[in-house]
Amino acid sequence: MKHLKAWSGYLGLVAVVLLLSGCFGEQNLTALDPKGPQAQWIFDNMMLSLYIMAFVTLVVFAIFFYILAKFRREDGDNEYPKQVHGSTVLEITWTVIPILLLLVLFVPTIIGTFDFAESQAPDDVEDAVYIDVTGHQYWWQFDYEEGFTAGQEVYIPTGERVYFNLNAQDVIHSFWVPALGGKIDTVPGIDNTLWLEADEPGTYMGKCAELCGPSHALMDFKLIALEREDYDQWVEDMVAKADVEQPEDASVQAGYDVFQESCISCHAVSGPGSASGPTLTNFGDRKTIAGYLENTDEQLEAWIRNPDEFKQGNNMQPFPDMPDEEMDALIAYLRSLEVREEGDPE
Ligand code: HEC
Ligand SMILES: [Cu+2]
Questions:
Q1: Mutate which of 212, 300, 316, 325 for ligand 1 pocket (most atoms within 8 A of beta carbon)
Q2: Structural domains of the chain, with CATH
Q3: How much is the pTM?
Q4: Using an 8 Å Cβ cutoff, are 177 and 204 in contact?
Q5: Which string of DSSP letters, residue by residue, matches 247-300?
Q6: pLDDT tens by residue, 123-143
Q7: Is 306 in the pocket of ligand 1 (CB under 6 A)?
Q8: Confidence of residue 271 (pLDDT cuts 50, 70, 90)
Q9: Which of 82, 83, 259, 308 is at 20 to 30 A from 337, Cα to Cα?
Q10: Ligand 1 near 255 CB (within 6 A)
């Protein structure tokens, strides 16, 4: 009975793990369900090493149990069997086999590692996308060649390699989109490079994968892959939006004034952006606030009044005493900062 209980406990644990891995799968936050060629490559090699390990384990255990059975002491065995010391054949065998197995893993690993760090598209590819990534405590900045900046959400076209040049402003972070490929550190003063490719349009979760301070675990971002023509449209809209200084819509003028007064020192809404806070050119399109809070008006107000409640140790100034009508105007203005329309492909 006791054993049965212990076993049902283990089974329960397995069920929970399976359930949890299910949730991760849905948010595209798993390396076990690859959505691009690089992630597929990593997955295949992981499986290869798993099969090799399983094979070695099986062989070793098979020999082990065979020997246990064969050399078991029988009734009447009162003497030591013949003792063997050293065997050149065996020594060579168990040295050569692991070398061969390691070579099988080594060669593709080296080829892949160099391929992933490729920083330039081949000459015959004309309109490859290059994006500069900067890690900050605790948010991500994405600078596009077209002269605009996005924060927290990076847009790429599907079906082609997109080249990232990665850096950090303060401490070491690590850029990781598990469903699309390998992670790479972003290091102040050092340029690291990585390309990623998404097979299908979709939203892929990203994480900071290097402990970088108290809110490290909340340093999430999203990679949004669009078909090439939708992506080109998005770039065009972002370029147009990044040129706008004054709001086009007079109803948000009051909020714009509050923003100019209190927020513009850290947050750009146009041009190539700033480095002290996320650029908000398309904040209205964000699925989340600060990478992880649902983007609702209530959450937005709570964030502006006390960001530290959500992300401990972050570098935004709190505005606990902002009058309600200023807050409402400000939120209306922030909502107007969008380039995507309802019905645009996700
Ligand atoms: C001292 C600089 C500073 C000031 C002033 C400031 N912010 Fe921030 N803000 C930040 C930083 C830094 C972050 C990123 C926080 C994080 O995620 O770690 C941020 C994040 C945000 C975000 C989330 C952005 C995103 O991409 O999801 C919003 C919205 C925001 N701020 C609004 C405002 C508003 C509105 C004001 C003015 C009332 C303001 N901020 C004033 C520095 C500032
Ligand atoms: Cu980080």
A1: 316
A2: 250-336 (2.60.40.420)
A3: 0.87
A4: yes
A5: -SSGGGHHHHHHHHHHTTTT--SSTT--SSS---TTGGG-SEETTTEE--HHHH
A6: 999 899 999 999 999 999 999
A7: no
A8: confident
A9: 308
A10: no
